[in-house]
Amino acid sequence: MKMETDENPTVKPEQAVTVEICEGSAKIVSENRVFYNPVQQFNRDLSLSVLSMFWKLCQNESKERKNGKKIPGNDFSDGMRVLEALSATGLRSIRYAKEVPGIKAIIANDLSAAAVKSIKKNIKLNNVEHLVTASEANAMTLMYNSTSPQSRFDAIDLDPYGNPTIFLDGAVQCIAEGGLLLVTATDMAILAGNNPESCYAKYGSVPLKTKACHEQALRILLRCIESHATRYGRYIKPLLSISVDFYIRVFVRVFTSPLECKMSSSKQSMFYQCTGCQTYSLQPLGILKPNPTEKNPNQFKYALPTVPSVNQHCDQCNNKYHMGGPIWTAPIHDFDFVDSLYELIQTEPYKNLETNPRIYGVLSVIREELPDVPLYYTLGHLCSVLKLQCIQIVKLRSALIHAGYKVSFSHTCKTSIKTNAPAKVLWDILRNWAKIHPVNAKHLEKNPVIRVMLSKEPEMTYNLHDIHPEANPSSRQRSLSRFPTNPMPNWGPGTRSTLMVGDDKLPKRIRNQNKHTSKRPNDEAADNETESKQLKTT
Fold this sequence. Notes:
Distance between the termini: 18 Å
Number of strands: 18
Strand order of the largest sheet: 6-5-4-7-8-10-9
Oligomer: single chain
CATH topology of the domain at 376-477: Phenylalanyl-tRNA Synthetase, Chain B, domain 1
Helix content: 25-40%
Largest sheet: 7 strands, mixed
Structural class: alpha+beta
CATH superfamily of the domain at 376-477: N2,N2-dimethylguanosine tRNA methyltransferase, C-terminal domain
Number of helices: 19
CATH architecture of the domain at 376-477: 2-Layer Sandwich
């Protein structure tokens, strides 16, 4: 990366800084007025890998159609039309054009005239004028004008600064039958439950403050996309849903089927969580009951569930519940697709991607996830509720497996416990653990939740000594890059319309110093001198 600046090392942030950035096979030139964030390289590497795998999937479906098999979706065998609705520098579109097979045309769109100027310059710089076209338009207007079958896109990439909800209505209308939506959301504070009223206004769901907040965020976004799609007789099929760094990213296919739309309520649930021990329970909005006939033994009927799924008070600690949702409770991954993607990234040229080790590690954990178990508990939280000495996670997983239950990690949390065991089984295992490692008496005196929960005898004795061979999964044994630490300070989404690279980019801790303090005129000289020293230091 080269930076062209004046000889003065104290470059002001408002000055135009031109930077040459190389990422993958693309090379772009950007200025600080156009947003570029190197943090998102993992996002871009994963996205082009998924899009490449999607192209292979479409080719396989095309062959099966020729053999007479009925498969939903359009035939993309002549190439894919891709829309990057919020393109900024055009880097992602250029990388798609140069690194993804089967690309027929890409529209790199942005509302900013400066961004479009940068996109055109970078398209020419990378010699992809025959594939990539720059567009200066409102993304929603562009998508609403492309809803006819002839003008729809085979893949649409939405990677906004913040929440993507305002773009979803247009996206589900202008995506081709069986096409791929790639959607990012970076407003994790809202999705994680810090502002439930804002989340409801934007996504139509109420989040709870839960240790499984990152998976909850994925399920809220998927439900939101589904709710937009069903208005037009369409439904989604998630291929891959990930939560990494400071954002979530989902890859879903969109199909049309009034019958599948009727099943949408059975894929969504309300979410109850105890205010004391945070035991959770799910209440589906609809259920499917078997209704076999002679002509169709697999026939079913739609029905309403009986409510509530929880008592007024928690069975474990006798506290009341908070209610959130609705959230998506169907699978968030297509494991056949994930397996194929896992094999693809181990081949050329994908294994040469800079973030390939991390993609490999994340996909390894996802392949081990339980497909039909929404949400999870965390080891630290379970033990902290009872003020217990923390049990080894392998021992807890082993006890669950010995008892006949399934357990896995979630790719969203290092200490997650995703299991099909009822909550009372988890608490009974910890009650067994408490007999071996008793709770400090002062906690029993002060904390009524601990007293109530430990006053109950476990229904059975669980094996906490013999480690089951399946308790330590392969990804953990091989020490893969499953949950890597942030590579630099202030790792995050950055500032809108800022380059995010270069010596002029001050750390957040320095930029925010005394930002609420009113300065006196005679302090300006001292402030300028301090700023100059800080710039030289950083």
